[in-house]
Amino acid sequence: MKLSDLQAQKRQIFIEMMQRGALKRMPRTRPRDPEEEQVLNRLAHLRWNRWLQNGTLVILAPRRWRLNLPPEND
User: Within 10 A of 47 (CB to CB), how many other CB atoms are there?
Assistant: First the structure.
């Protein structure tokens, strides 16, 4: 399996979870490792910027935004 295939599969799962609102989890009981936290913050920042550049994320106001998810292909 190619990396691009795996990324496409993970992206599709992520989109489906966002649409269902299934990304709500219980908070961790153990604090994250500081290095892990930095990596996760960097990844989230890169994803946010990528969404802004390709139009998936639209800033409506300083504290309002919209995530344009692709339509379902069912």
Answer: 13
- Is the distance from CB of 55 to CB of 49 less than 8 angstroms? no
Please give the single-letter amino acid code of residue 4: S
Residues in the chain: 74
pTM (global) more than 0.90 = no
Give the separation between CA 7 and CA 53, rounded to whole angstroms.
19
The secondary element (H helix, E strand) that includes residue 64 is: strand 64-67
Residue from 66, 72, 65, 60 nearest 19 by CA: 72
Q: What is the mean pLDDT of residues 31-48?
A: 94
Domain ranges (residues) in the chain: 32-57
